[in-house]
Design brief:
Shape: globular
Order of helices and strands: HEHEEHEHEEEEEEEHH
Distance between the termini: 53 Å
Structural class: alpha/beta
Helix content: 25-40%
Number of domains: 2
Largest sheet: 9 strands, mixed
Strand content: 15-25%
Number of strands: 11
CATH architecture of the largest domain: 3-Layer(aba) Sandwich
Oligomer: single chain
CATH topology of the largest domain: Rossmann fold
Radius of gyration: 22 Å
Number of helices: 6
């Protein structure tokens, strides 16, 4: 073979390598930069955070970091997350209040267009922080009561009821059971293509959630019957809330690791995360998504 051939071949190989390197770099850069905050929780965050990381990474569109706060009573002044590095914050935390600098940075992050996804007991956090409660719209426990805002639920005709009259605590649930979920917003990007009704696994069905309840869109509910210590009403389990330019999602399922392996949880968590960060959902509904009768599962870890 001629010297000219080898020169051309070498130039082609170098050009191909440069193209591939650029493509890989661009792909990594295009991923949704995500941070999961944990470190304190009345649930087992050490168990659930690895599941959340795996679920997001399996979607092939998230680049995930974890920021772990000091334990209860620790020095929160040294815990700071550089929110400017991220497109999405996932809340797997409730416990001691962050320091004022981090509080302010988080509010500015969401207000300026950052995505925020509160996972399960993340909505128990910061009962006395007005901005945080505006973002989640509905929270529970941690001393919440009628002074925290109204209850919000749906009546049997599917109408949203905002009950600012009834006093009582915020946050409650009965025993875990495998309840059916009703898709209340079939045209919303998160819910589009999902069945009208589908079966979730044994999990906590939150009820008596209360808070500011401003600008809430209810995406899905489950009926909490009296024989499961429910209130015989349809309880919101997934809601969205605008905050400034940001998109906030309050997703109340996923008590522990076994719930995180439910396909209904996995798919919705991935879709909530993409929508909170981008305002769109590009993921297809997988073939193993459950119907109305039985939950489905994946072995993740």
């Amino acid at each position: 073979m001629s010297l000219k051939f080898w020169k051309n071949a070498s130039l082609f190989a170098a050009s191909l390598a440069l193209t591939l390197t650029f493509a890989v770099g661009a792909s990594a850069q295009d991923k949704i930069r995500t941070v999961i905050i944990d470190g304190q929780n009345n649930h087992n965050w050490k168990e659930t955070t690895p599941y959340l990381v795996k679920i997001l990474e399996d979607a092939k569109m998230f680049d995930v970091d974890v920021a772990t706060a000091p334990g209860k009573g620790g020095d929160m002044s040294k815990f700071n997350v550089d929110f400017s590095k991220y497109d999405l914050v996932v809340m797997n935390y409730n416990g001691d209040r962050w320091n004022p600098q981090m509080d302010k940075a988080f509010v500015e992050f969401v207000k300026n267009g950052g995505g925020f996804l509160s996972y399960h007991a993340g909505n128990n956090a910061f009962a006395n922080w007005p901005a945080f409660n505006e973002m989640i719209a509905l929270g529970g426990w941690e001393g919440r009561n009628e002074n925290s805002g109204p209850y919000l639920y749906l009546d049997n005709d599917g109408n949203v009821v905002i009950d600012a009259v009834e006093p009582g605590p915020g946050g409650d649930h009965g025993p875990q059971w495998a309840f059916p979920i009703d898709n209340r917003a079939p045209e919303h990007p998160i819910m589009k293509g999902l069945p009208k009704t589908f079966r979730h696994c044994e999990d906590e069905l939150y009820q008596r959630m209360r808070g500011p309840a401003h600008n809430v869109e209810v995406l899905m509910t489950a009926f909490a019957p009296a024989d499961k210590r429910g209130l015989n009403r349809h309880e919101p389990l997934l809601i969205t809330v605008p905050y400034g330019k940001g998109r906030c999602v309050n997703y109340m399922l996923g008590h522990a690791g076994k719930q995180c392996e439910s396909v209904s949880f996995i798919v919705l968590f991935q879709r909530c995360a993409e929508w909170a960060a981008t305002g769109a959902v590009t993921q297809e509904v997988p073939a193993d998504f459950p119907g109305a009768d039985e939950p489905t599962f994946r072995d993740l870890l």
